[in-house]
Amino acid sequence: MAVQARALVTSKWLAESLQIPGKVRVLDSSWHLPKLQRHARRDFKKRHIPGAGFFDIDQCCDKTSPLDHMLPSEAVFADYVGDLGIDGDTHVVVYDASDCGAFSAPRAWWMFRVFGHSRVSLLNGGLKNWVLEQRPVSNQPVRPAPVEFKAQLNRSWIKNYEDLLDNLDTREFQVVDARPAGRFRGLDPEPRDNTEPGHIPGAINMPFSTFLSKSGHFLPAEQLQALFSRAGVDLSRPVCVLCGSAVTACVVALAAHECGHATVSVYDGSWSEWYTRAVPEHVISEGRGKHL
To answer: Would you say 211 and 227 are in contact if contact means Cβ atoms under 8 Å apart?
Structure first.
């Protein structure tokens, strides 16, 4: 039976754990939208939590896909993670350096879980709060010896375009879109070229930022539960989450996990795929929408 790790850990817990050799493996999982022109790996080299490795979602992905950072094969994930010194017994702690406290690291958290590794946690508050608390940072690289990692993909946690298309009729699962309200409604531009804003018919908008406090920490479970309830999401029923490219969607997945709903699925192609493939009537928008 795999050992489950709690989804969120505090900076105090992590600081204490780092004093025990081999207890945790920390991964900076920062990623930024290209138009922000922030270079996550370059920033990591300048400043990271001591002993951390860098988990690059643009490298650990399916490079044959035209879509951004789609999930890799089991073999690719296993090789990538094994090269970071992580095996089946490693407790992995992920974080990112976003201004909001959690942006891309929940994607890494979800990736480990969907490939069968439940010993993974997210540093609540991210690097932002680690630094605010004046905890140590480093610019020194760490190169652990490669080990063997075995990946087993849980396909039930992944949805594709056809699944979402069928769901328009069957309504077998609820669809939650984590993008900001302006993009969901079709009024604010998408950050990717050749993609107009809007949403899938029947989707519920829950911007990922609403699950985080002003400080960048996840809200307490009871507040997360209230958010889902107010939005009309029934966590006793199946839920699928998406965003622009299935990164911040995983913030919603983690929030649902904190509410006891650990089996949220992710539409990996997300809006960038849906907009490309959908017929115009399946792009709901208060703005331009999609035209043939």
So the answer is: yes
- The residues annotated as belonging to the active site are 243
* pLDDT tens, position by position, 261-278: 989 999 999 999 999 999
C-alpha separations of 224 from 171, 235, 255 in Å: 24, 11, 6
The strand order across the sheet containing 265-267 reads: 158-159, 265-267, 239-242, 174-177, 204-205
In the numeric block, which tokens belong to residue 220? 């307490």
Give the predicted TM-score (pTM) of the model.
0.96
Residues 6+ apart with CB under 8 A from 224: 211, 218, 255, 256, 258, 259
Helix axes 221-231, 249-258, angle to 10 degrees: 120
Exposed (0-12), middle (13-18) or buried (19+): which is 97, by Cβ within 10 Å? buried
